[in-house]
Amino acid sequence: MTKEAKNILVANLKKYFGFSTFKGNQAAIIQHVLDKKNTFVLMPTGGGKSLCYQLPALMLNGTAIIISPLIALMKNQVDTMRNFMSEDGVAHFINSSLNKAQINKVKEDILIGKTKLLYVAPESLTKDENVQFLRQLEISFYAIDEAHCISEWGHDFRPEYRRIRPIIAEIGEAPIMALTATATPKVQHDIQKNLGMLDAQIFKASFNRPNLYYEVRPKINAEKEIIKHIKNNAGKSGIIYCLSRKKVEELAELLQVNNIKALPYHAGMDAATRSTNQDKFLMEEVDVIVATIAFGMGIDKPDVRYVIHYDVPKSLEGYYQETGRAGRDGGEGNCISFYSYKDILKLEKFMQGKPVAEQEIGKQLLLETVAYAESALCRRKLLLHYFGEEYTESNCETCDNCRHPKAQFEGEQYLVTALSAILELQEKFKTEHIANFLAGHADSAIKSYKHHKLEMFGTGDEKDERFWNMVLRQALVVGLLQKEIENYGLLKLTRKGTEFLDTPYSIMLSEDHEYTEDEEETTVNLAGKSSTVDDELFKILKDLRKKISKQKNLPPFVIFQDTSLEDMCIQYPVNMIEMQNISGVGAGKAQRYGKDFVDVIKAYVEEKEIIRPQDMVVKSVINKSGLKVYIIQAIDRKVALEDICETKNLDIPELLTEIEAIVNSGTKLNLDYYINQVLDDEHRDKIYNYFKNEAETESIDDALKVLDDNEYSEEDIRLVRVKFISELGN
User: How far is residue 105's CA from residue 99's CA, in Å, rounded to a whole number?
Assistant: First the structure.
């Protein structure tokens, strides 16, 4: 580019956007578009892709057509453009969110030459009325944003993107610009081929985001870990990705009840709610968005400080795109993923029933994700290698594997064996097949090719398939192997690999992580010991309960049961909100008796200097459609207990257990309508007075010993005990 051309670009950049310098290779890209040539832009999130089509659109005659996949993204982009300009008409969008009058206004602005950028969804582009309208215009160029949506190998494939090229031909030819933040060599080739732009100049920025920290954690107590992370980063913006809409709703609600400003976002919500939730996040009215992958494409929020994947992403491209929304301003960006192989099996199950080719692609993409999660190699090196970029540093210092490296072992002989096996199989098979071949695992594919009869079959049977997968993966990263682009996944030796086989040399390998599948929660008490009850505090609380019971003239168990006191001695609640999280303590019981207990516990915690981890008390979400709510509502309506049992498939003892739990938590229930039907006044009063004046515990067995068990059934006693605790305790 000449100095004069560069000066013209800088002058226009200053005039329209107020900047005086370009980022990276923006200037070269923009000049290429101004020269009316096909252009392919590979630039990571935050690299400044939008400017690459916005500035040339303003400088060229005519209107640039920007094809974009999301309505929310279009609105965001148009609003941003209008903020830079004095005229709103400079940028418009046409999509299903507009009514007829609004569309007519857009068309009017375009026809009089006001509009330089018109954003359209691919679905809108293919409508006949829009095609006929666009044929009237002078089109400066077409920009296809999020171009990876074209490729079946991309993480966000959309069939309608495949129709863009024929529609362009119908509307009228003009230069094409494809832009994406993520594209492997395979996806890149697919995009160019489909858009008929194999001649395009490719501008590829580095995919390295040095400010991002990458970490993979085993998926154990994930909700608790997430709440802890958010509370340790209070006030910072974050995104949490889940694969299902249901999980998005559940997790958002869980965060809300734990006093975290969070909102859900997924494609199943109506457009107005989605848009409102997105705007609240952008305007910092909420700190956290819990979302499916429907959220985030092109969202221009520079200060997202963490991106958490609750579920394993379907592909490494998706993972890179989503983590790329953290730290776009170059500041802090933590990327934490929770990994369980069970999630991978779940995703594979979802693929069943899809066309075989689609299943094959999906499986290969998933295997890349597994490899990334389980590998002990530098995560930055793995990610960049996946996108065809070499990272030469030995330690990035910003991923969990580099900060906490696993022990290495000599891999020379294993690599020789693996590369020899690939040659034996004539470089025509994928990683999984070769790993099975080396480990001596004769699955159906091995048998169908009769590979179990070859000399090298099972030469590495002292190790399992998982080990050989790891060796092959690391051979790819160090450049001894490559994967064929067209036949995705077929392993071939590189020149470096051939040289290594001729003259082997030392290469150190790292064992993979083995994430445990044990999902059981391990409760640790606040003093850092095991979850045994604090005996000293338990004694103090029992004494306090006894004192209050005498003042109120009630048996101690009516105040709080022993199980509740034990839970207090594990969780140490120091305020009324935390007290409501204690087993058997609801809002009513906490309000009636909780304050004295909270004050004693708080003083004890301070005196003993007990450390309370923030994540220890996580409020659970009430299942609003659950059994307990149904029982409360049914009893309010005076429904016979037998009818409740029939509806909910319970027997009477099971129903009484549920009712007791409700009452013991502090909720008042009036069962008189039922008790008066099944017990006469004398029997009812005798049981009631026993619990009021004689009982030392709530035990039914003790009650039966005092009362005549020929005259009173266990069911009778339980019913009246519920009445007694409800009336006097709640």
Answer: 10
Q: How many CB atoms lie within 10 A of CB 530?
A: 10
Going by their DSSP bridges, the two strands 508-510 and 408-410 should be labelled as: antiparallel
CB 412 within 8 A of CB 505: yes
Mark which of 506, 526, 543 sits at the end of a domain.
Answer: 506
202 and 163 in contact (C-beta within 8 Å)? Answer: no
Question: pTM value?
Answer: 0.60
Q: Which two tokens stand for residue 215?
A: 């970490």
Task: Name the nearest CA neighbour of 240 among 286, 306, 165.
Answer: 306
Amino acid in the structure at residue 622: I
Same domain for 396 and 420, yes or no, is: no
Q: What are the residues whose beta carbons fall under 8 Å from the beta carbon of 195, sequence distance 6 or more? A: 144, 147, 150, 164, 165, 176, 178
* Closest CA relative to residue 16, chosen from 44, 55, 42, 46: 55
**Mean pLDDT score of the chain:** 86
- Hey, what amino acid is at 4? E
Do 631 and 569 lie in one domain? The reply is no
How many other C-beta atoms are found inside a 10 Å radius of the C-beta of residue 685? 12
Query: Where are any strands of DSSP class E within 372-466?
Result: 408-410
Evaluated on CA atoms 168, 174, 175, 179, the torsion sign reads negative
Q: Please name which of 223, 200, 71 lies closest in space to residue 142, comparing C-alpha atoms.
A: 200
Backbone angles phi, psi at 506, to 5 degrees: -70, 130
Contact 411, 509 (CB under 8 A): yes
- Alpha-carbon distance 450 to 445, whole Å? 9
AA identity, residue 32: H
Q: How confident is the model at residue 522 (pLDDT cuts 50, 70, 90)?
A: very low
**CB 365, CB 488: distance < 8 Å:** no
For residues 441 and 465, the answer to whether their CB atoms sit within 8 Å is yes
Query: Could you give the C-alpha distances from 458 to 179, 422, 425, 435, 454, in angstroms and in order?
Result: 46, 13, 13, 10, 9
Q: Does one domain contain both 495 and 539?
A: no
> What's the rounded Cα separation, in Å, for the pair 134 and 118?
10
**Backbone dihedral angles phi then psi of residue 217, each to the nearest 5 degrees:** -120, 150
Answer yes or no: are the C-beta atoms of 298 and 68 closer than 8 Å.
Answer: yes
Alpha-carbon distance of 74 to 360, in angstroms, equals 33
pLDDT digits (tens, 9 = 90+) for 580-618: 878 778 777 888 889 999 999 999 888 877 765 434 456
344-378 per-position pLDDT tens digit: 878 877 777 778 777 777 888 888 888 898 888 89
Terminal-to-terminal C-alpha distance of the chain = 81
Dihedral angle over CA of 84, 87, 91, 94, nearest 10: 140
Q: Which residues contact 264 (CB under 8 A, 6 or more apart)?
A: 248, 249, 252, 277, 289, 290, 291
Residues 350 and 436 in one domain: no
The bridge status of strand 63-67 relative to strand 237-241 is: unpaired
Max avg pLDDT among 75-79, 564-568, 625-629: 564-568
Domain count within the chain: 5
Burial 273-303 (b: 16+ CB within 10 A, else e): ebbebbeebbeeebbbbbbbbbbbbbbebee
Q: Which two tokens stand for residue 77?
A: 């982009």
Between CA 522 and CA 505 the distance in angstroms is: 46
What is the residue range of 574's domain? 535-608
The DSSP secondary structure of 488-542, one letter per residue, reads: TTBEEE-HHHHHHHHS----EEEPPP------------TTSS-S---HHHHHHHH
Pair (241, 175) in one structural domain: no
Handedness of CA 496, 498, 504, 510 (dihedral sign): positive
Q: Which helix (H) or strand (E) holds 240?
A: strand 237-241
